[in-house]
Amino acid sequence: MIRDLVTRAGLVLAGALTATAAFAAPAAAHGADAPDGTDYRTEVSAVAPARPGLTVRVVEAGARLELTNTGDRAVEVLGYSGEPYLRVGPDGVYENVRSPATYLNRTIAGDTRLPAEANPAAAPDWRRVDGSSTVRWHDQRALWRESAPPPQVRAAPDREHRVRDWTVPLRAGTEAGEIRGTLDWVPPPDAYVWWVVATVGLLAVGALGLLPARSQPGARALAGLGALLVLGGVAAVVFTVGRELDAGARGVGGVLTGLLGGQVWALLTGLGAVAAGVFALARRPAADFALALAGACLALFAGVANAAVFARAVAPVPWPASTARILVALILVAGAGATAAGALRLHATSRPPHPTPHPPPTARVDHGVVVGDEPERNRPDRAP
Description:
This protein has 384 residues and is of the alpha+beta class. The protein has helices at 2-29, 100-104, 151-155, 191-206, 216-246, 251-262, 264-281, 287-303, 321-350; strands at 40-48, 54-59, 64-69, 75-78, 84-89, 92-96, 126-130, 134-137, 161-172, 175-185, 363-366, 369-372.
C-alpha cells in the first residue's frame, strides 16, 4: 500500500512539473518577466507638473513603471528619441508601432529585435492595446541593465549608493511634463544565514518523524506537523498575493486574475498545504502521506521558487524585504520538514512488526519417552 501511495505521489509531482513547464512560456510571453528580487531600488519622486487623475508608481520590484490617467485629456509617454511612445486617455491605452521603445520595452532586458517599420522620426501610428486607463512598461531610463554594477558599487559594495536620477518625458497636448525618480544600489543580505536558518529548522521539524507514530508523543508530533503545515500554507498564500499586489493588481478581481494567470501553482500548493494540515490535525487515515506530498509541493513551488529573496535587497512584495525572507523561510521549513517527517513516519509504519517469540513448551520424561506438557486433566496417568 505504501508503495502505491509513493507511486501516486510521484505521478502527481511529475504532472505538476509538466504543467508548470507548459504554462511557463505563455506566461513569459504575456510579460511576466518580473524579477524574483533585485539589488537596485527604483522609486518615483514626482510627476511634474501635477495633473488631476494622473499617477505614476513603480511595480514588480522596480521592473516596470505604471501610469494611470483618469483625467479628461490624454497623456503621452515619450520614447528614447523623444518620439510619441504611449498614449493613455479616456479612450484607452495606445502604443505607437513606429516607436522603437514599443519593442525594446517588451522585455526587461530590452533585447527585442526592431522591425523595419520602427522609425522614431516617422509620424505616429497608434494601435489600441487596452481599454483601461492604466499602462505598465519597462523603461530603460529607470533600470540598471548592465551585468556589472556601477563603479561606485564595485568600490564599496557594502554601502548604499545613488546610481542616478532619472526622468521620463511626458506630453499632454502641447504641455510638456516628466516623471522624476531615483535609482539606488542597496547592499544584498547574506543568503548563507537564511539558508542555514531554513536548513536547521526543516531538520528539526523532520526529526519529529522519528517519534513512534502509535505512541502519545507521536500523536502530538502529528498534530504539531499539521499546525505547522497550515501556517506554511498561509504564508505561501500571503506571499503569492503580495507578489500580485506588487505587480500592480488592484482590487479582489485584479488579484484573482493575476493569481490564476501567473501564480496559480504557488497558490494551489499553499491551499493544498492548509488542507493537508487540517487533515493531519484531524488524525485522518493517510495523514502521513498527505503531509509528505503537500509538504513537498509547498517547498518546491512556493519555497524554492521564491528563494531568490534570500540574496536580494529588494523583494517583489509591497512589504519590507525582511518580511518576505521570513515568509519564504517559514514555507521551506514547514514544507520540507513535513515531507521528511511524513516520509519517516510512512517508512516506520510500512515495516512488518517483529513476531513475538513464544516460550518453548515444557517437556517431561515418561517411561523414557519425552512427552510435551499437557493440561493436568488430560494426562492418562492421573486418576480422575
